[in-house]
What we know:
Layout: H1 2-19, E1 45-48, E2 51-55, E3 71-75, E4 78-81, H2 87-105, E5 109-112, E6 119-122, E7 158-164, H3 166-171, E8 185-191, H4 198-201, H5 209-214, H6 231-251, H7 265-273, E9 335-341, H8 346-349, E10 371-375, E11 392-395, E12 403-404, E13 408-410
Parallel strand pairs: 9-12
Antiparallel strand pairs: 1-4, 2-3, 4-13, 5-6, 7-8, 9-10, 10-11
Amino acid sequence: xxxxxxxxxxxxxxxxxxxxxxxxxxxxxxxxxxxxxxxxxxxxxxxxxxxxxxxxxxxxxxxxxxxxxxxxxxxxxxxxxxxxxxxxxxxxxxxxxxxxxxxxxxxxxxxxxxxxxxxxxxxxxxxxxxxxxxxxxxxxxxxxxxxxxxxxxxxxxxxxxxxxxxxxxxxxxxxxxxxxxxxxxxxxxxxxxxxxxxxxxxxxxxxxxxxxxxxxxxxxxxxxxxxxxxxxxxxxxxxxxxxxxxxxxxxxxxxxxxxxxxxxxxxxxxxxxxxxxxxxxxxxxxxxxxxxxxxxxxxxxxxxxxxxxxxxxxxxxxxxxxxxxxxxxxxxxxxxxxxxxxxxxxxxxxxxxxxxxxxxxxxxxxxxxxxxxxxxxxxxxxxxxxxxxxxxxxxxxxxxxxxxxxxxxxxxxxxxxxxx
Length: 420
């Protein structure tokens, strides 16, 4: 018996020694073995450093609307997509949802037991047989088919994700004896297929059927910005992109990074200015042409010469010159969703440290509460709307042929230059 006790004592000393707890000599040294970590750059993004700038109009407020008065704000560093999300990038998301739906229907799942929380996850190691009759429910019924082609029913492509409402968590009082976290751990299900009919719906008495038929799927438009995606779909894409990347880091036994998300309208404007202050356009300004007379963005110049800038509709997401941060098409091409709710007085009441006004309206709420800020102007807008300080809105459940988005990821740490 004494021998067994001595063996256990030795094992205990070895175990503590391996954790480093017997090496600190009683001093406060922190938990040992934690390696230095620097935020890896997500593919397709550029670094925008921490800084301060004057937000708001860079031109005369002729109508005295006061919806974008000047205000100095400070923004934390972030990784920003160098281009708008393209059709082909969004298609990766669509394919993922199609694949997940097929695995759900064919019950390709794995049972997981985790401290009494038993659940199932999809088994992505098995190959899906898309010719299986079990998957016929994914397609249009024979009565709805066009020319008898077996086509996917895109209304069934729904992405479901969990998220934490930190603002509600911060303002909710914890009640002893009750499940507290379930009140702000929420789940959202979002149909994710782009509305290709927006090309016809947006323009009355205008022939745009070829764009409806081809823009999202044809390889010619792979590198063009995705449109027909509403605010909720853009947020769902960000959540999927976060899960997709974090799954890789967890497989590598590495720390996960911050989540991808839509930028706040002030982050967007700060990035669009490219490190300059009070500049009218991302390239500086105050003109929309360079010294050779060439337009510097895709918008609606003059009195409606859509082709005057080289693009009648959206152009490639990397067209024209980038701004000083390396970001393409922060002016024109397609307007971009931001994370913020729209209010005419946001600049007056928002904080000057990472200002952020959020409100996710319910379906039964007033349409006014569903307004979300869009920035940057688009291929069909006049020059005023592509100015850095211009702000307008669209409704969160509305899809347009001239609105896309790009993602940002908050940088973890003070500066990306610290590792040097």
